[in-house]
Structure formats: C-alpha cells, structure tokens
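Hey, resending since the last one bounced:
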Amino acid sequence: MSTLMNTYSRLPVEFTHGEGVWLYDTAGNAWLDALSGIAVCGLGHAHPALTKAISEQAGRLLHTSNIYHIGAQRQLADKLIAASGMDCVFFSNSGAEANEAAIKLARMHGHNKGIDLPTIIVFESSFHGRTLATLSATGNRKVQAGFGPLVKGFARAPFADLDAVKTIAKNNQNIVAVLVEPIQGEGGVHIPEPAFLDGLRELCDQNDWLLMLDEVQTGNGRTGKYFAYQHHNWLPDVVTTAKGLANGVPIGACLASGKATGLFGPGNHGSTFGGNPLACAAGIATIDTIINENYAEKALQMGDYIQQQLREKLAEQSIVKEIRGKGLLLGIELKHECTNLVQKALEKRLLINVTNGNVIRLLPPLIIQQAEADQLVAGVCQLINAFAQDMAESA
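The structure tokens again:
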C-alpha cells in the first residue's frame, strides 16, 4: 500500500534528471518533454542560470518571514512590474493561491462599494485551481464533484460570449469583477477573438468592475509576450501568474493596477512561505533569462512554425478537427476522445497531455530548437495517424 494519497493517476515512468528539453528516466532513456511540467519549466531542465541562482541563495538564506523585509522579493517585484506595467504584487506559492488573492481583492472592492454579496463573472470550461474558492470559480463540474457546497459569489457565462456577460450584468446588480483566462488551457486551448477581451475591458470600465486575468498558464513568455494581455493595448486591474514564474520552484503572484492597487492593507492577506528568498531568487533568474534572451518572441516564432508543420503534415487527416494555439501553448482537437494517446506517446518517449478529452495539448519549453520541434511534430503526427487508423479499423 502506498503511503501517498491516491490523488494522481501516475504514468509508469520516473525521471532522475533533465537537460534542456530532455528528461532522463531511471533506466537512462531520454524523453522529449513537450509538457514542461504543465507549462512550468519554460527554460527547460537544469538551466545554468537557475542552478546558479538557487545554489547561491540556498547557501545564504532560505526563509525568514514576511514580518521582515526581503530584498529578493522587492527585486522580483520590481522586475515583474517592469515587465507587466502593473503597479504592485503579492507573492504566494501557487496559481490557485494567486487566484484566491484576486478573488479577495474583488470582494473587498465590492464591500467598499456597499455590496453585501460581491459576485464575480467566470466562464464555462475555465480552470482556476483546486482550493474551495478557485474550485467554485472553475467551470468544470467533474473537478467540483464531491466538494459541495461550493463557495457563493460567482456567475457563469459561456466563454468568449460577450453578449452573455452583458445579460448577466443587466440581471445582477452585485457584479464586481470578471475573472477570465486570456486563453483557456485546461479547458482545451480555446483562444477567443481579440474583441472579446477588449469588450470585457470596456464593460469593466463602464461598470466599475475589476478585470482580473488568470495568466497562471499563459504568462511568463508562453504566448509570445511576457503576459498574454500584452497582445492588447490595455492593462487589467488584476493579473495572476505562477507556473513558469520560477521554472519549477513553487511561487505565485497576484499583480494589481489602478483601482485594485490600494484594496489590501496590512492584515488583509498573507502567506508564510509566499515570496521567500529561495523562490524569489529563482524567479529573478527566470524572468531575467526570459527577457534577456527574448524567449517570448522566440516562443511566438517557434509556435507558428510548429503549427505550420502540423497543418501541412495533417492536412489530409480527417480525424483532426482543428489546430490552434498562440506561442508555445498549442492544441490539436480531434473528433474523438483521445486520452489514451498520452499512454501511447510514452512508447515514443514523448511527453504530451490530453485535455478536455479530445485536445492534445503541447506546452514545450520556450527554449526548444527547430530540430527538437521537428521531432515533436513527427512524433505527434505518428500518434494521430496511428489513432486514426485504429478508429477506422474499429468502425
């Protein structure tokens, strides 16, 4: 009997070390990592800048407390603010915690306006975390099952449907914020038209709502800008991030601007480990490397290349419904459920993910080179072609 709680359906492989886009298992086999720990290791594995920063910080100081000033925390905050255009940041340990901070900001905003039941508009097929509040905000009944009663104060709309948001606004006077992923990752790599997010910004301005963007997965260079909202010409009021912020060292961040900046005061929120010296040293090295090496721009170029190659090689494959993505957040939607392809990919020593049942999600490290991208494309196309043949033979 395992001493670990049974919370994961683990695949039959264990890794001992990595280098760049490659992971190595206990038998010494090399695996092409097209998942990056689910968009975490944007700089790949064992990046020398990260190794140096973590080692040096571990030799100096791991943790004090937020009771005291933390120099590395201020440095990382300064870099995030410079990269984002936002005004201030709160550090946590994960994306779910960052989203909890955002939800609390929205509620504080509502209570300051005299609203007793502040309500946040969220979206179907969204994913915001597994704490009770973020689970309640998430638009996936499967992950909510068994955990009711859920937290009140959320109104749900279809993703990318601005008219539905307007209808909610007319019928609910308690709306104080909108929480949305610029691109739905866990929900199936759904990319809205630019007009949807632009329209949300306008609605929030008109109604004194907070526009809160969950960039836990899309941030840190993944979509071709440091943050996905930077493909637009406005700032959110709140943006959350985590995953790729420190390349594998646990950290999350909730950034605020404008009217969201002064909502929290001492005692309103906190975290024992949030923004500790070790995590912030890793974050500083990560953000410096992403920016100095132009990895966001490279992600956009390489993502376009991978999409082009996939479209060319799968053009005649009728089982493919759509290939979509932005930067190195890519999805291949098939016409049939294909969760078994994760296991099939292991036979090729390729690490991928299937989300929403029928969408192959690719999240390779931002450092991936063309030769490695070609290997990735070849492996994925082989999987899809074999899957299509199996489906035809079983029909």
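The chain has twelve helices and 15 strands.

Sorry for the duplicate.
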